[in-house]
Amino acid sequence: AQYVLHSENFVPGNFSVIIVPSLADLDADGDLDLFLTDCGLTTDIIYYQNVGSAAWPQFQWVTNAWQGLTLPWASVRYLRFFDLDEDGDLDLFFLNVEGEEGQGYNLRYYRNVGTPQSPQMQLVTPAWLPLEVDFACPEFCDIDSDGHTDLFVGEWNGGLLFFHGTDTASVSPYTKPRPQRVMDLSLSPQPGNPTVAASYELRAASHVLLKVYDTAGREVRTLVEGWKDAGSHRVTFDGSDLAAGVYLVRLEAGDFNQTQKLVLLK
Questions:
Q1: Are residues 141 and 206 in the same domain?
Q2: 148 and 200 share a domain?
Q3: pLDDT of 182-204, one tens digit each?
């Protein structure tokens, strides 16, 4: 890949020193929001909501004190968002420094006890790892494609720890049941040329909005708007009057939403 500098001020603001960005979809709207730590400005988490689109973000400042979480030593607070308990929302991990909560260097684990759209982080433990790690910087992934989450942790002295996941919770003893999904959205065929069937299933009766947007976030079509009973539903989208390209199909049902990418051919 080749990268070309687009902007030196993509996120406007008065920042100080050692700015560390983290990106995660914390409102479950299909695009990435931005979180910053600033060693010289604040010991809190700065939160910008993406009010643009998945294809072209536009970050709007929300707060300098997200969730009321205080980060002493902000220069080494690398935030990691990951759905550890597999309940459909993102949890949070970051460094616990020596002496905090009566613990040594480790990883703090905050469980999201809110919803995918409205997170509420609750501290579970300041010492999630089974051993102390100086200035831990975590990264979660399934490195060996075995269906289990693995964990890499960088540390102060240059080491890289690897925890091999043997179950979905990896090295964590904290789990909770995974709830049934409230809705499912699927598009077929993909790519569409030019018609696509949008199928969705509701676990309960709900007011439904099903709309199509372009990658700039502009609404181009309303497919469904109204009350729908529980069960399977299907509607046909005819894109013959639209340009070929990528579109976003967004389903809203009650307090839940889901977005799928649609590729339209001509």
A1: no
A2: no
A3: 467 888 888 888 899 999 888 77
